[in-house]
């Protein structure tokens, strides 16, 4: 998971992640990875509109956000 997160950080890719919080709650977040620090990473969380620090081990799934522009006729 760490290599995957690192790759998305290099490309500036937005991610949708399923994350297990400290309280044991599973949450879905839309994030941009700012920095990797050992077993944690700092992100900008668009769900909370704030910087957050996540533990890599608590990420259950991560999917890159793909924006598709629609053709206007």
Integer-rounded radius of gyration: 13 Å
Helix and strand composition category: mainly beta
- Tell me the series of helices and strands, N- to C-terminal: HEEEEE
Quickly give the CATH architecture.
Answer: Roll
The chain-level mean pLDDT equals 91
Strand content: over 45%
The low-confidence parts are: none
Report the sheet with the most strands, covering strand number, pairing sense and barrel closure. 5 strands, antiparallel
Helix tally? Answer: 1
Kindly report how far apart the N and C termini lie: 41 Å
The assembly state of the depicted protein chains is single chain
**Helicity level:** 10-25%
Q: What's the arrangement of strands in the largest beta sheet? A: 4-3-2-1-5
Number of strands: 5
Kindly describe this structure.
The chain is about 15% helix and about 50% strand. With about 70 residues, the chain is mostly beta strands. The chain has one domain: Roll (SH3 type barrels). β2 (about 25-35) and β3 (about 40-45) form a beta hairpin. The chain is globular, with a radius of gyration of 13 Å. The chain starts with a helix and ends in a 9-residue tail after the last strand.
